[in-house]
From TrEMBL:
Belongs to the peroxiredoxin family. Prx6 subfamily. PROSITE patterns: THIOREDOXIN_2. The active site is at C45. One of its GO terms (cellular component) is mitochondrion. This is Thioredoxin-like protein. It comes from Hesseltinella vesiculosa.
Length: 216
């Protein structure tokens, strides 16, 4: 089954650095970011996990849980976390899924089919850098896929969460390069007359493009 925006995030059970989880129970009533890494003790992954750990306060402000995945076992994960903390001067406190058998990677279609060198000693593919943003209803709201060679921009992932959460609360969308606090677009389903009732400072650029101040 192909995973698409609007799909229910597949549930699974897994071992993590914080103990066993059932994924839907882990999500609970939070937004959740599930993100994969090719392998432990690799350079790009070490920088990425350090950034995510450093952003812990930002995730909490947005009611977001983060959970990583790497195609290694728990023992390697625990040793790798020591390196991540040392290199990035952080304290990594979110779980990392142990997916040496690639069950979760396969379920979420994370395996690398592009880079023939991104494999383990047995020739089994590692993952690419997948990102899933999942809302409290367990619905997939964003899917991003980066090659193993390119580290992710987690400021962009924060930006998307801000946009999704704002759009869920108000009848708005966000323009290109939008950042929290910038003007937003009034949703096309809202008439201009209704827009003037719902929002302050409505600016009509085109009948289909109306801007207003961000609700937050």
């Amino acid at each position: 089954m192909s995973l698409r925006l609007g799909s229910t995030a597949p549930d699974f059970e897994a071992q993590t650095t914080k103990g066993p989880i059932k994924f839907h129970e882990f999500i609970g009533d939070k937004w959740t970011i599930l993100f994969s890494h090719p392998a432990d003790f690799t350079p790009v992954c070490t920088t990425e996990l350090g950034v995510v750990a450093a952003l812990q306060d930002e995730w909490e402000k947005r009611n977001v849980k983060v959970i990583g995945l790497s195609a290694n076992g728990l023992d390697d994960h625990q040793k790798w976390i020591e390196d991540i903390n040392e290199v990035n001067s952080v304290t990594l406190d979110f779980p990392i899924i142990a997916d040496a058998d690639r069950k979760v990677s396969t379920l979420y279609d994370m395996l690398d089919h592009q880079d023939a060198t991104n494999v383990d000693a047995k020739g089994i593919p590692f993952t690419v850098r997948s990102v899933f943003i999942i809302d409290p209803k367990k619905t997939i709201r964003l899917i991003l896929t980066y090659p193993a060679s390119t580290g992710r921009n987690f400021d962009e992932i924060l930006r998307v969460i801000d946009s999704l959460q704002l759009g869920d609360q108000h009848r708005i969308t966000t323009p290109a390069n939008w950042k929290k606090g910038d003007d937003v677009i009034i949703h096309p389903s809202v008439s201009t007359a209704e827009a003037h009732e719902l929002f302050k400072n409505v600016r009509v650029i085109k009948p289909y493009l109306r801007l207003t101040k961000s609700p937050f």
